[in-house]
Amino acid sequence: MTLRIGMIGPGGMGKAHIERIHTVISGGRVVAVSDVNPDNAKAVAEQIDGTAYATSAELINSPDVDAIMIASYGPAHKPDVIAAIEAGKYVFCEKPLAPTAAECEEIMAAEQKAGKKLVTVGFMRRFDASYREMKKILDDGEVGEALMVHCAHRNPTVPEMYTWDMAINDTAIHEIDTMRWLLGEEFVSARVDKPKKTSLRFEHLQDPLVLILTSESGVRVDDEVFVNCQYGYDIQCELVAEQGVVRLGDQELVHRADKLGRRNRLTMDHNQRFGQAFVTEVQEWITAVSQDRHTGSDSWDGYAAAVVCDAGVAALTADGEVPITMIERPALYA
Ligand SMILES: NC(=O)c1ccc[n+]([C@@H]2O[C@H](COP(=O)([O-])OP(=O)(O)OC[C@H]3O[C@@H](n4cnc5c(N)ncnc54)[C@H](O)[C@@H]3O)[C@@H](O)[C@H]2O)c1
Ligand SMILES: O[C@H]1[C@H](O)[C@@H](O)[C@H](O)[C@@H](O)[C@H]1O
């Protein structure tokens, strides 16, 4: 049976997910769309031979839609996630689950009322083969205890609408989630170091910056966020453990040597760099939902990432460490 998916907000990310679902992923089809921009909904519906709904509520409650994907703008996620939960439908929500921890708590309250985990948050790096191999090496005890992790998250450029807090809320949120997952523990404090700013940026941005997180057991994670690096979409991660160091591969397809030297083509955006991770993530979600089970990051992960982001944003304007405090983890997410 094909899972009939309704997509809310088919913009850049949503269209990339549709393309994957309709070409390389099996078991699902996007049959309905809605968008705050009705012309976009109509155009996408025509392309996929599906239905355009005037509102997300109508799409969510349609008997012709089995499960929901949300790829709209972050601040719009919460009401649609809650409506999907109330309709008893599995929902895949692109990161962030919601921009603030308080909104994520509302989502968790609705899910607990439903008594079942229905929400998956689109943290795709958990599905990347290199990160998975790094986690396996750590979990198998091959390098001993983790001590430090050095991360870099570099984007070629960002548009002017990218606000000052997005370096944390929109960009570093990936490392925040991936590091919680890799280390298997929560963070207790955040600090932001603010180096010399690149001249090739919009004036309102602190770019680059370094977010420094400390985990419950004392592991120190530093994350260089540099969103106007000009040269490529460059994701780095080096885990330093007691008996070894594990570094993320560069995802090279080939090793090339020519008169310009030994070099490799760089990826330029998230869809290129994490293309296979997105495929695995969405495939696992479709398979799990078709079997009536939850998979991937849950609402607690969305909440935890939001709490750390809130502290990171506070640290952007504060001097020194900002403590991170979380609510007790509800039993549903144990
Ligand atoms: N996992 C990743 O690496 C990754 C990469 C890019 C974007 N994202 C996430 O995906 C989401 C979308 O990002 P994007 O780059 O595709 O943005 P986008 O602006 O290209 O697309 C967003 C779409 O949502 C629509 N929209 C906005 N508000 C809406 C609402 N209230 N109801 C219905 N539709 C609405 C817009 O009209 C647009 O079509 C964001 O949450 C973003 O953080 C994740
Ligand atoms: O929304 C995007 C997306 O999440 C990308 O994966 C990230 O590299 C960008 O910094 C962010 O702006």
TrEMBL record:
Keywords assigned by UniProt? NAD, Oxidoreductase
| Reactions catalysed according to its record | myo-inositol + NAD(+) = scyllo-inosose + NADH + H(+)
- The EC number(s) given in the record are 1.1.1.18
**A GO MF label:** nucleotide binding
Q: Where is the GFO/IDH/MocA-like oxidoreductase domain?
A: 131-246
Domain of life the protein comes from: Bacteria
Show the InterPro entries listed in the entry.
Gfo-Idh-MocA_inositol_DH, Gfo/Idh/MocA-like_OxRdtase_N, GFO_IDH_MocA-like_dom, MI/DCI_dehydrogenase, NAD(P)-bd_dom_sf
The record describes its quaternary structure and partners as: Homotetramer.
What family does this belong to? Answer: Belongs to the Gfo/Idh/MocA family.
Name the UniProt record assigns to this protein:
Inositol 2-dehydrogenase
Naturally occurring in which organism (per UniProt): Tessaracoccus lapidicaptus
Protein's gene: iolG
